[in-house]
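ESCALATION

Customer reports they have been waiting on this structure for their group meeting. Please prioritize. Original submission:
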Amino acid sequence: MCLLTFNWLAHPEYRLILVGNRDEVFDRPSKPIHQWDSGFFGGKDLKSGGAWMGISPEGRFAAITNYRDFYNLKENPVSRGFLVKNFLEGSMSPFDYLTEISTKMDKYDGFNLLVADTEKMYYLSNYGEDIIEIEPGLHTLSNELLNSDWPKEQLAQEDLQELILLDKLHPTEMLDILKSEEIIPDEKLPDTGVTLIQERALSAQFVRLEDYYGTVNTTAILWGHDGSGLISEKFYVGKEEAENNTITFRTK
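Update from on-call: job pushed to the front of the queue and completed.
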């Protein structure tokens, strides 16, 4: 994923409320969210074999975004998607898992990783200093550190908060946010090692970078305190909606 806004343990019905955009090279092959042979629900990167987000029947959740730093790319990095896959298929506690990952973060290009069980969620970035426990409430994550001041993150949080306040927590409404194509002024753009044209395009929530890279799907998750939940996806071809995919799940 490349832009997430989520509400954790701060709603009477839902443990996790999340909406996220996945930005990718258009011709990179992937499989929509489905139940893997190992049991968890998530999409699959068919090129490297990892996942970008998922939930397991055991009540484990994980999601990852790239930390964008094109000045310091690794020569032969390990695919970041395995950080999600391995947690969802494992049994380590969220904190212990991130403690283990923290000893080998230099094997990966920049990442932001969220992992959770039914009670605790933690965050780790190989551009951050420590493992952080996620407090109950609203949060955002993009290609900077957690809860950055990037305008598209602030707008995402405001939009999700409005849905919660208006009690519009349904995939139809949730999948309609994170669509802003507003480009922020050049003087407010970060410097992440890409060209100015690319930096402008990437500052929008809904990304279109010429004809090769951009937002390929939006995902909404509702995970109830009772273990029931759903994951809904909206896919795009260009700027047009291609198809929707919704699955229900139950965790322990």
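Sent to customer with the following note: Residues 3-250 form a domain with the Penicillin V Acylase; Chain A fold (CATH 3.60.60.10).
Escalation resolved.
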